[in-house]
Amino acid sequence: MFEDRPDAARRLDEETVAWLTTVRADGQPQPSIVWLIRDDETIVVYSKDETPRLRNIRADSRVALHLNSDADGDGLLIIEGEARIVGVDVAPSEDAAYVAKFERHLPRWDFTWESYDHGFPVRIHITPTRLRTS
Question: Is pLDDT of 1 > 90?
């Protein structure tokens, strides 16, 4: 999907945060902020364990990932997709692409890799099914 949309791939590679929206069992959307990397055609995020987002994904794997627009409302990117909870197979500190992207942000947000690995151990893969832009 991203080979046809290098602009979307570039934004996923460069931007640090996005809003991941899952849906509760009663239909209420639940957005949460996430750090993300693109791994070819998959988007990878890490999550705290036992969170509403994981519970929601287990019940309904359909998600939306929103990147911010510019100040004028242009450049909006929404990625609809299917999320799969991979589990605790790779710690964030062992994910070279994740480390390369977020190493400089850890001190600013008062994290070490040890605390981040402990706090966000669950790996989620999102396979995009549709891109929407403004």
Answer: no
